[in-house]
Predict the 3D structure of the following.
Amino acid sequence: MTRVLVVEDDPQLLRAFTINLKARTYEVDAAPDGATALRLAAARPPDAVLLDLGLPDIDGLDVIKGLRGWGQVPILVVSARRAEAEKIEALDSGADDYITKPFSMEELLARLRVALRHRAAGPVAGAGARVVRTKDFTVDMVAKKATRGDRDVRLTPTEWHLLEVLLRNPGRLVPQRELLQEVWSPAHSDHTNYLRVYMAQLRRKLEADPSHPRYLITEPGMGYRFEE
Ligand code: CA
């Protein structure tokens, strides 16, 4: 049984989440505020957390930090807040993904499944042999070989590194800062222009229609996502 902790102060939304999750056989703990959320998480460790940032007592960002104090439970932030800075702060505080209201319940459940898969796979997922195949390209991360149709695609070491980080995290929104730190260095974490340039190159080499990417998706102002 997969337990999901839902933290939401809007009673109607909390009820909607609970009904939809239970219908899909998740076990649900419902918290109307941050203090209850942290108490419930300590008493019954959840497998995933859906978290509203705007809570009546503690700020949602502090709930993320509180949850991160104990472990690596996937946290999916669900919020009406639109300010980019806040989304980025949520991701930097340790949230795994972010979904902005209004959204469809199906989209939310899909993101939740990705977060749970990611956790089940563990931090070393994809560290070993791995070949990623899409309809348009194939990437063999062990042989360091990429092909599009029957043609080899030549990638620079930096392009490889960036592509590998994204492919190792299918479906997950990887924050800009995480990509910059991993592929370049912590000193480069503000150089988001690098990402724009290198992502454009990767799309040109791998996507069938680089101006309408299907696999290497931009989440504006936040990060990038590899959609399988
Ligand atoms: Ca709220």
